[in-house]
Amino acid sequence: MPRDASELAHRLAREAEALCRHYLSNGKREGKYWLIGDVHNSPGRSMFVRLQDSPKGPAGKFTEYVARSIMLRIFDWVVSHRRLTASTQHNASALRELA
After folding, report:
1. What is the value of pTM for the model shown?
2. In this predicted model, which residue has the larger pLDDT, 5 or 89?
């Protein structure tokens, strides 16, 4: 079964732009990425979908910048108010590595 799922993932990645045009029609292509507001097809530039494989990741991989920036602001607030826990520190470190 994993082989079937893997093959499906590769086939979808090859069609990343066509899928974006259909399901994220309020977005637009800019270079090697499809830019859109969010997964609900809102207009904007907060989320991008990679349209081609690259050293940074495979085609079809998406990143939502708004969620990450909000989480970093929450972390900064927690640190400034000295309410840092081990799990908060771990989650914030993971977010900062992605940024």
Report:
1. 0.62
2. 5
